[in-house]
Specification:
Elements (H helix, E strand, L loop, with lengths): L2 H6 L5 E15 L13 E7 L8 E10 L8 E13 L9 H7 L1 H21 L16 H4 L1
Antiparallel strand pairs: 1-4, 2-3, 3-4
């Protein structure tokens, strides 16, 4: 990044430091394998750990399940990822860390989850198409993001 851009864009006081796939499961339903995936039916879930004061980190999990709620689907899918975020305690008020992990972190991790969901059926089971939609996220003023 150029020096000019560094002045224009400051790093956020919370940074993603590690990303891991915790679970990646796909089960093809042979009798329905010719069907197209139903991208409208999926369940997202997320949660977070307590703040680790020693390491100045908080872990956030996000995952998706597809196919469990619909009868005629080509596959069932479950993927869960974990992001570990490091907090600059001098720049971010700790009283807002859990709120940030609950509301902001899943939005940061969603593109990584989406990549895993789109890749698993395509590369491992021979299905095509994009499975998770993009979301519109409302724009907030700086004080509401914390």
């Amino acid at each position: 990044m150029s020096e000019e851009n560094k002045k224009e864009y400051e790093n956020h006081p919370i940074q993603l430091r590690a990303l891991k796939v915790l679970e990646l499961s796909i089960k093809v339903i042979p009798e329905h394998s010719q069907l197209e995936p139903n991208v409208e039916k999926f369940s997202l879930f997320h949660g977070h750990s307590e703040y680790d004061k020693k390491n100045k980190t908080i872990a956030v999990r996000i995952g998706v399940e597809m196919g469990q709620e619909v009868k005629e689907v080509p596959f069932e899918l479950r993927i869960e990822i974990l992001g570990v975020f490091e907090v600059d305690e001098d720049q971010f008020p700790l009283k807002f860390v859990h709120n940030w992990a609950e509301k902001n972190a899943p939005l940061i991790l969603y593109p990584y989850l989406r990549e895993q969901v789109d890749n698993a059926p395509r590369s491992r089971a021979g299905f095509g198409g994009t499975l998770l939609p993009l979301f519109q996220v409302p724009t907030f003023s700086h004080h509401k993001l914390i």
